[in-house]
Specification:
By secondary structure, this protein is of the alpha/beta class. The protein is built from 14 helices and 13 strands.
């Protein structure tokens, strides 16, 4: 059982909520939340008895924090996919890669660290038209990520493998998370579905596999409080097609020809509404699905939310205004019914069947 736990990136949503969950565990003597900036005022109540430590994991002085507090469990949750929160892409890479290097060096020289948990991403498998239907933990990317968060995560995992060779006595858990959704978490994907019109790649309808934020926090908690060494894909059961997700959100898809996808992505990033990197735009071409069998059978956790349920929780948990409201759809049905009756009077049954088909599709979309 962990006695002293240190959580990095505690000013971010997942790490903050994790620290709060750990603070409710009486078996843990002390919890340190490390970040360069303090958590938002609204999140302070979530931290419980967590002690905030203003420290930069990119600085070698992080080893002093670990040694003075006699930390035995380190949860590295500060690897980020959002450049705007890090101050840009260059600082993001420095935080993700250089920060991980310094943190691992500090853990390597520590006499007290016994357990290390690292938050990674299924983006390390890359995204390409040659991908298998389902990735397992033993597979490698068919096309290695060349930029952004995914490339950072590949480098982080490389340094982690080196650490495990040098410190085989430390229990290391590597968690590759699918895209997070939920009522509170803010990610590039959740912002994407909040756009009034949603750009998509013409001719592509990728499979999306998601993970509810509550499942993510519970997996991190379990890994932090017990020895569950290994590499695990952490993703919900089932998938959603991008077109299905857009319809459920009540948004309008705008297919963009392949040559213009990069231009649209840059325009959206410059707007500041959604910070979609090139590899994330690639993800919206081909999607990605991973196996969670090892998570269930070896790690011992089954996600409580399916992909569909996680997405519905995201839609109902925050104010997302559909572009196609119920009143607009009702008016459209009425106009179409009148048009069908006018143009096809000899076949009233066909008119009724057509309108019924529209209503059925609406029930499927919203149900």
């Amino acid at each position: 059982m962990s006695r002293v736990v240190m959580v990095t990136g505690v000013s971010r949503h997942l790490a903050c909520r994790l620290a709060g969950r750990l603070s409710a565990d009486p078996a843990i003597d002390r919890i340190l939340g490390v970040d360069t900036v303090p958590p938002a005022r609204a999140d302070l109540d979530l931290l419980g008895r967590t002690e905030f430590v203003r420290a930069d994991i990119r600085n070698p002085l992080i080893s002093r924090v670990i040694s003075q507090a006699e930390v035995d469990t380190v949860v590295h949750a500060s690897v980020t996919a959002t450049p705007h929160s890090a101050g840009g892409r260059a600082p993001m890479k420095e935080l993700n890669v250089i920060g991980t290097m310094q943190l691992l060096a500090a853990c390597q020289h520590s006499d007290t660290v016994q357990r290390l948990v690292v938050k990674s991403t299924t983006a390390v498998y890359g995204t390409s038209p040659r991908d298998p239907a389902i990735f397992t933990e033993d597979m490698e990317a068919r096309a290695l990520p060349r930029s952004g968060y995914a490339k950072d995560a590949v480098e982080v995992e490389g340094y982690l493998r080196g650490f495990t060779r040098r410190r085989p006595d430390v229990n290391v858990t590597l968690l590759r998370f699918a895209n997070f959704v939920g009522p509170f978490i803010d990610t590039p994907l959740t912002r994407y579905f909040q756009l009034p019109v949603v750009p998509t790649a013409f001719g592509f309808d990728p499979r999306l596999q998601l993970l509810h934020e509550n499942d993510a926090i519970e997996v991190l908690r379990l890994a932090s409080t017990s020895d569950r060494p290994g590499t695990f894909n952490v993703a919900a059961d089932g998938v959603l097609l991008l077109s299905q997700a857009i319809r459920r959100a009540g948004k309008i898809a705008v297919p963009v020809p392949a040559p213009a996808v990069s231009f649209v992505g840059r325009a959206v990033r410059r707007s500041g509404i959604v910070d979609f990197s090139p590899e994330q735009m690639q993800f919206l071409n081909f999607g990605r699905v991973v196996s969670n069998d090892r998570l269930k059978d070896v790690f011992g956790y089954s996600p409580q939310f399916s992909t569909t349920q996680a997405f519905e929780s995201f839609l109902t948990g925050r104010p997302i205004t559909p572009v196609l409201s119920e009143s607009v759809l009702d008016a459209g049905e009425a106009v179409l019914a009148r048009l069908l009756r006018t143009t096809a009077p000899p076949h009233p049954s066909r008119t009724t069947a057509s309108v019924s088909s529209i209503r059925s599709s609406r029930r499927l979309r919203h149900g």
